[in-house]
From TrEMBL:
This is Serine/threonine-protein kinase RIO3. InterPro entries: Kinase-like_dom_sf, RIO-type_Ser/Thr_kinase, RIO_dom, RIO_kinase, RIO_kinase_CS, Ser/Thr_kinase_Rio3. It comes from Podilymbus podiceps (Pied-billed grebe). CDD domains: RIO3_euk (cd05146). Pfam families: RIO1 (PF01163). The keyword Cytoplasm applies.
Length: 519
C-alpha cells in the first residue's frame, strides 16, 4: 500500500495512526504529509471499490426470503458461502491430519517437533479446540452452589526469602502474556498465550493500546456492515453450526429469522426427528423451535458487564475467560435460567440444546408465527387481569423457587400464547444476591406495574407494593427515592456480609433459597 493509502485509512487522526498506535511502528520522527484532496480521492476510490466488490459478491446471507437452511438445500445459491463452508471443513480435516502426523513423528520422544505453524485454522480462531465445553448437561448448574471466595489482598505469596510479590518481573511478564486473552476475539495474539512468554509491562501496554484501537476500528466496520444488507445475516461459523444441526437430523428446516436484536438473532425452525438426551431424559424434538444466536461480536455485550461482572456465580470464571467465551456464557446462562424456570413450572421456552453461542429451544407460537409480545396484543379486560395475576405469581415463583430476578422484565419480553403469559429472554437474569439484584427487581416491578395500571387493571399493585410482594421484604418507604435508597442499603449490607464472611452459606438457609436480609 502506498503511504498516502495508509495515512488515509479510517484510523487516521491528524498524523499517520499506524506509527503511534502500532507497537512495532517506527518512532514518531518523520511524518508523511498528504493533502486533503489526496485523502478525499483515496476515500472515494475505496468507496467505489467497495461498491464493486458488493456487486460482485452479493451479500453473504440474506435470510428473509425462502427457507434459510433445509436438509436438501443448504443455500447453494451463495457460492461464496458454500465455498467458505467447504473450506472450513477442509481446513479442519487438514489440521486433524497434521495433528495425527505430528503425534506419529514425535511418539514418546522427549524432544518433539511442532507443526503448529502449518495449521490452517488459527488456534485462537478455532472452534474445535479441546477446551471447548458445550454445556449441554443441565444436571449441573455451575452457578448454583459455588461459594464466593475472597482473594487475599496482601499482594504477595510465599514466606521469608521465597517471597514473590506481584511486581516480580517473571510473574508479571507471565501475567501480561495471559492477559492478552482478554483482547477482542478478532485480535490475533499468536501462540504467546500457550508459551512461557514473559511480556514486559511496556510491551504489554503498547499491545493493549493497539488491541483497543483495533477493536474500536472493527466495531466501526461492523456497524457499517450491520446497517447494510447483511443486517439479518449470521457469520459463516454460526451458519456452519446451524447447517450441522440440520444435517444431524435435529432440525428439519430453518425457515427464517424472526427477530434481530442488538445482542441476538432469533430463527424459526421445524424440529427434526431426532430423539435427544436432555437432563437424564430422552426427548423428542419440539415440532417448532426457536434458535437464539448470541452475536459473536463483543461490542454489544460491553454494556452488559454490570450483570455479569458482579455476579459472584461468574467471579471465578470471568477473569479467566476470553471474550468469545463470555458471549457463550450468556447463552449458557439463558439455558440454565430457562431450565430452572421450567422446573418451577413457569411457562417459558423449553431448552433443547446449547451449541456454543447457539441456543435451541421450543417455539412459542404456531405455524412459524411467533406469539405476540404483551405490548402488541390488545387483551380484554378480563384477560388483562388474568395476565396480571399470572405475572405476579410468576415473579414470586421466579424469586422464591428459581432464586432468580428476571432483570429485563417488561411487556417486550412476555409473550401471549394459549391465553397465558410466557416469559422469555432470561440470559441477563441474576440471583437475588447479585450486588444490584434488588435494583433490577425494582425496575422489573416498575415496568410491570406501570404496564398494567395503564392497561386498566385497578387491582394492580404499585411498584413498591409489588416489590415487597415478590421479595418478601418489607420496605416501608412511601416514596420512590427513599424506597430506592433502602434497596441500595440492603444491597450494600448484603455485599459487606459476603466480603466479611466470604461464604454465602449464612445468607442461604438452604441451597437455592433466596437470601434473607434480617440482620
Ligand atoms: P433479545 O431481546 O435479547 O434480542 P429475545 O430472547 O427477547 O432476545 O428474543 C427476541 C424476540 O424473538 C422475542 O421478542 C420474540 O419475539 C422472539 N422469540 C424469542 N424466543 C422465542 C421463542 N422461544 N418462541 C417464539 N418467539 C421467540
Ligand atoms: Mn427481548
Amino acid at each position: 500500500m502506498d503511504p498516502v493509502g495508509v495515512a488515509a485509512a479510517p484510523e487516521a487522526g491528524p498524523g499517520p495512526a499506524w506509527q503511534s498506535k502500532c507497537p512495532w511502528g517506527a518512532p514518531n520522527t518523520t511524518s508523511i504529509s498528504c493533502s486533503l484532496a489526496d485523502v478525499m480521492s483515496e476515500q472515494l476510490a475505496k468507496e467505489l471499490q467497495l461498491e464493486e466488490e458488493n456487486a460482485a459478491f452479493p451479500e453473504v446471507v440474506a435470510v428473509a426470503e425462502g427457507p434459510f437452511i433445509t436438509g436438501e438445500n443448504t443455500d447453494t445459491s451463495s457460492d461464496l458461502m458454500l465455498a467458505q463452508m467447504l473450506q472450513m471443513e477442509f481446513d479442519r480435516e487438514y489440521d486433524a491430519q497434521l495433528r495425527r502426523e505430528e503425534r506419529k513423528i514425535n511418539g514418546d520422544s522427549k524432544v518433539s517437533i511442532s507443526f503448529e505453524n502449518y495449521r490452517k485454522v488459527h488456534p485462537y480462531d478455532s472452534d474445535s479446540s479441546e477446551d471447548e465445553v458445550d454445556w449441554q448437561d443441565t444436571r449441573h448448574d455451575p452457578y448454583r452452589a459455588d461459594k464466593p471466595t475472597t482473594t487475599p489482598r496482601k499482594g504477595f505469596i510465599g514466606k521469608g526469602k521465597d517471597i514473590t510479590t506481584k511486581h516480580d518481573e517473571v510473574v508479571c511478564g507471565r501475567k501480561n502474556t495471559a492477559r492478552m486473552e482478554n483482547f477482542a476475539p478478532e485480535f490475533q495474539v499468536g501462540d504467546g498465550i500457550g508459551m512461557d512468554l514473559k511480556l514486559s509491562n511496556q510491551v504489554f501496554n503498547a499491545l493493549k493500546q493497539h488491541a483497543y484501537s483495533e477493536e474500536r476500528r472493527s466495531a466501526r466496520l461492523h456497524e457499517k456492515k450491520e446497517h447494510s444488507t447483511a443486517e439479518k445475516a449470521v457469520d459463516p461459523k454460526t451458519r456452519l453450526l446451524l447447517y450441522k444441526m440440520v444435517n444431524a437430523g435435529m432440525l428439519e428446516t430453518i425457515t427464517g429469522c424472526i427477530s434481530t436484536g442488538k445482542e441476538s438473532v432469533v430463527f424459526h425452525a421445524y424440529g427434526g426427528k431426532l430423539v435427544y438426551y436432555f437432563a437424564t431424559e430422552d426427548k423428542v424434538m419440539p415440532p417448532e423451535c426457536a434458535i437464539k444466536v448470541f452475536k459473536t461480536t463483543l461490542n454489544e455485550f460491553k454494556n452488559r458487564d454490570k450483570y455479569i461482572k458482579d455476579d459472584y456465580r461468574f467471579k471465578d470464571r470471568f477473569s479467566k475467560l476470553n471474550p468469545r467465551k463470555i458471549i457463550r456464557m450468556w447463552a449458557e446462562k439463558e439455558m440454565h435460567n430457562l431450565t430452572r424456570m421450567q422446573n418451577a413450572g413457569i411457562p417459558c421456552p423449553q431448552v433443547v440444546i446449547l451449541k456454543k453461542h447457539i441456543l435451541v429451544m421450543s417455539f412459542i407460537g404456531q405455524d412459524q408465527v411467533p406469539a405476540p409480545k404483551l405490548k402488541d396484543v390488545t387483551l380484554s379486560s378480563e384477560d388483562m387481569k388474568k395476565a396480571y395475576y399470572q405475572i405476579l405469581n410468576m415473579m414470586q415463583q421466579l424469586y422464591k423457587e428459581c432464586n432468580l430476578i428476571h432483570a429485563d422484565l417488561s411487556e417486550y419480553n412476555m409473550l401471549w400464547h394459549d391465553r397465558k403469559v410466557w416469559l422469555i429472554d432470561v440470559s441477563q437474569s441474576v440471583e437475588p444476591t447479585h450486588p444490584h439484584g434488588l435494583e433490577f427487581l425494582f425496575r422489573d416491578c416498575r415496568n410491570v406495574s406501570q404496564f398494567f395500571q395503564k392497561g386498566g387493571v385497578v387491582e394492580a399493585l404499585n411498584e413498591r407494593e409489588l416489590f415487597n410482594a415478590v421479595s418478601g421484604l418489607n420496605i416501608t418507604a412511601d416514596n420512590e427515592v427513599d424506597f430506592q435508597a433502602e434497596i441500595e442499603a440492603l444491597e450494600k449490607m448484603n455485599e459487606d456480609h459476603v466480603q466479611n464472611h466470604g461464604k454465602k452459606l449464612s445468607m442461604f438457609p438452604s441451597d437455592g433459597d433466596p437470601p434473607i436480609f434480617d440482620e
